[in-house]
Write a structure and sequence with these properties.
CATH class: Mainly Beta
Radius of gyration: 18 Å
CATH architecture: 3 Solenoid
Strand content: over 45%
Protein name: LysM domain-containing protein
Number of strands: 16
Distance between the termini: 9 Å
InterPro entries: Pectin_lyas_fold, Pectin_lyase_fold/virulence, RHGA/B-epi-like_pectate_lyase
Domain Rhamnogalacturonase A/B/Epimerase-like pectate lyase: 11-155
Organism: Metarhizium guizhouense (strain ARSEF 977)
Length: 266
């Protein structure tokens, strides 16, 4: 158990309570390790509580890694204050990795950042004040067995710190065998463009929603609306058209094992 308690932890310096890489002060963004070559990092069996931390925009993990890395069986507790800037995972760049069985409660964002090609399995992300997952860039992320609950947005594929031409579209996301529950907007994304190379690709396969007002909302005002009752969306593909293929029904998806079961904060 790692808890941010006492005067030291409340004001600690750094991007995360646990860091996989460190920026060198006054070195124009240079770091200890090259993020695309930061291999062989492993984290397992941690409880991390940053709720009492006062440092702005801090995270439980600054996870800036590449291939042959993994995070497994981790519980993260962040503040649920409406004005919080905390994050569960900050992963602003990197090149691959595997994350599995992680529970994140609270924070402005559960996951914030970007990476070339993560694979994520069995994540439960609950009670964020902005988005369960905010991706500022990627090549392609695969998300399997997500349980996203009680937040304004499930995914935000828009960089909140960029505007206009600087806001380049996220690459692609593939979400399968997952549940969106009590989410106002399932996925916020940039408007689709004529050139597929400039568009965000969204693939949803066997995704169940319950009390989700809008499943996909684009910056041009186009949207895929859903009724508040449970509905199953299968094989929804957004490319250079708003909807290239979509089917929906009321059949329940296959029962999948949830990741980390809910655990009350210690």
């Amino acid at each position: 158990m790692l808890a941010a308690l006492g005067p030291f932890w409340k004001d600690f310096v750094g991007l995360g309570a646990i860091q996989s890489d460190v920026y060198i002060p006054n070195q124009n963004g240079d770091e200890w390790y090259i993020e695309q070559s930061n291999f062989y990092r492993q984290v397992r069996n941690f409880n991390v509580d940053i709720r009492q931390t006062t440092t702005k925009k801090t995270a439980a993990f600054h996870w800036q890694v590449a291939q042959a890395t993994s995070m497994t069986n981790v519980y993260i507790y962040a503040s649920t204050d409406p004005g919080t800037t905390q994050m569960g995972l900050l992963t602003e760049n990197g090149s691959g990795g595997f994350l599995s069985d992680v529970y994140i409660s609270g924070g402005k964002y559960g996951i914030y950042g970007g990476n070339q090609q993560y694979t994520v399995r069995h994540f439960e992300i609950h009670g964020q004040t902005d988005s369960c997952i905010a991706l500022i860039w990627d090549w392609g992320w695969t998300w399997y067995g997500l349980y996203l609950d009680s937040a304004p947005n499930g995914f935000s594929l828009l960089n909140p710190e960029a505007d206009g031409a600087a806001r380049t579209p996220t690459g692609s996301v593939y979400v399968m065998d997952s549940l969106f529950l009590n989410i106002k907007t399932g996925i916020k994304t940039s408007a689709l463009k004529k050139d597929i190379k400039e568009s965000t690709i969204i693939q949803l396969d066997n995704v169940r929603t319950s009390y989700v007002d809008t499943m996909i909302s684009a910056t041009d005002g186009s949207a895929v609306e859903l009724p508040p009752a449970t509905i199953l969306a299968m094989s929804w593909l957004a490319t250079s058209r708003l909807v290239a293929r979509r089917s929906a029904g009321t059949a329940a998806p296959d029962q999948r094992r949830r990741g980390c079961p809910f655990r009350e904060p210690p």
